[in-house]
Amino acid sequence: MELILIGYGCHSKVVQDILSLDKTIKIVAILDDRFGECYHLKDIVYGPIFLFHQMDQPDRRVLIAIGDNVRRMQVAAYLKNDAEKYYTAIHPSAVISPSAEIGAGTVIMPHAVVNPDARIHSFSIINSGAIVEHDCEVGAYTHLSPNTTLTGGVKIGEGSHVGAGATIIPGKMLGKWVTVGAGAVVTKDVPDGQLAVGCPAYLVDRSELKKEARL
């Protein structure tokens, strides 16, 4: 299978490692707007993202290997592909329940666990050692950082980012585009767009953080 990879940053490095374990996959292009022009190296085309529409073929698949949730969503909107076009990368050491649903274009890293009746929507990142327990739902374009734990029945909205080592207790809900700090323990629902940090987690005003950064 020939595959076009979108993204050439740090996240892409890890994705390329996962893909290298499947000898049936041949990466034919790595596209990123950091490349000002097109060039070839070891039978792989490197160039800006707009080249995708020139290189796309019916039998080729694509995977967006971009860690930033907003940028990943923007690129998916630009490509305008059907879900069937996207490849879903799952490391062989990950444990995925047969009853779990994994959306198109998602990447699941080494030693991650997705338990029964969990649902991962499209273009999400389930990073190394993350645990998604039974009956959880993870929205599209979400990133669960290494060693995060979603206990049973947790719901996470689109575009949210859960920091490394954070835990969400059973049945809690995170809204869309929420950020949870590393190591936080979330014991209450978190509304859309909020930042939650600490143990137990509390909300932090993002505007105040911006003011402090300017001081």
* Shape label: globular
Q: N-to-C SSE series?
A: EHEEEHEHEEEEEEEEEEEEEEEEEEEH
Say which CATH homologous superfamily of the largest domain is assigned: Hexapeptide repeat proteins
Strand neighbour order, sheet with most strands: 6-9-12-15-18-21-23-24
Beta content:
25-35%
Biggest pleated-sheet summary: 8 strands, mixed
* CATH overall fold name of the largest domain: UDP N-Acetylglucosamine Acyltransferase, domain 1
Helix content: 10-25%
| CATH class categorisation of the largest domain | Mainly Beta
Number of extended strands? 24
Average pLDDT for all residues: 95
Backbone structural class: alpha/beta
Distance between the termini: 52 Å
> Which CATH architecture of the largest domain would you pick?
3 Solenoid
When the domains are counted, the total is: 2
Radius of gyration from the alpha-carbon trace, in angstroms: 18 Å
Weakly predicted, low-confidence segments: none
Pfam family, one: PglD_N
Keywords: Transferase
Active site: 134 (proton acceptor)
Domain PglD N-terminal: 3-78
